[in-house]
Fold this protein.
Amino acid sequence: MISNERMKEVVLAIANNQTLEVKDDINDVCKVFKDHTLIHQLYNVYHLDYLKKYYLSGIVIKQYQEDIVEEIKNIFNENGIDFIFLKGSFIKKFYPDYFLRLMGDIDVLVREADLKKASELLSNHKFECEKPLESYNFKKLEESCHHIEFKRNNIIVELHRKLFDVKSSWTSYFENAWDHAIKQDNHEYEFEPVFFYLFQIGHLNKHMHLFGAGIRPYIDFYYILKEYPVDINKLMVEAKDLKLDKFFNSILNVVDYLFDFAPYEYVKMEYLNEYITNIIEAGVHGYSSNNKDNVYANRMAIEKKSKFKFYLQLLFPNRKIMKGYYPYLKKHPILLPIARVQRVFTCVFVKSKNIKKVENSTAKRDTLIKLYDEIGLNN
């Protein structure tokens, strides 16, 4: 791990194209930035030979991603498919250099009525679908199927029919996304600025509800706030209606801390240091090795569950979660009792280390509850 101040120093150096002195904690810096998939950016900061391979790999990935984005544009424009590039595919244009914003995958939204045709077009152009297209019932897709995954040159493309695959008090606002779309060129659309901001806030909120999000979305917000003007009064009214105003306030706190940049007024957080530490520990989408011991503490805090209730949830998850753990239940739901026994056996006897993690998470849970209340994550 590295300190909050160290993260700020390196992130600022990247943003300002500055060189830093190599210090004794360089290995820790590299590990953290690798967990956040930002290690390719360190070569220009430290100019160390062993970082050059990540820099060169980033250049290759950037080119692959840009080529694929252009190909998708051409395919959909030529075949009358309306589309909107989401997240990194759109945000990268606010960065001074696209190389600074590599995408984990390429997300593109199409109208639900066009999903089948769009999927067939990608498949016909040698994009490999995660499973045979004939296995999808496009007339009645499962509620959880909010995108279909394709791959080209190891770059994942997610073809979305809706923006969120989770239900919360605010996700219904995004169900009519096309009502907030503005035509740009041919069949390409973009979201209205307020809707775009709210989607980014909501998307980050979703990841924080799961396992964490890492530093990249906050870097995104720095460039979005800097380069993409929005009617802040209208945005704050909408965010408050959706109960996302506290969370947006927390984003403004982090951006100001990291970049000394505050385009709009905000309320200073009491638990900002704990928040930054939580972000650093998480890594991309919470998958950092530093975050493994925090997963249960995060979940216990977000759900405000006691140890006893949390144990029960671990042992007896709902049917939807059980289907994820045991795919055979999708075809044979009658086997649920057997799967229940299998789940208890796995938790108690095979994954007993997880029980210890729950025990060790209680103290951190109390601090996180206060943090999550402050940023509105428990709304």
User: Anything to note?
Assistant: The two ends are 30 Å apart (CA to CA).
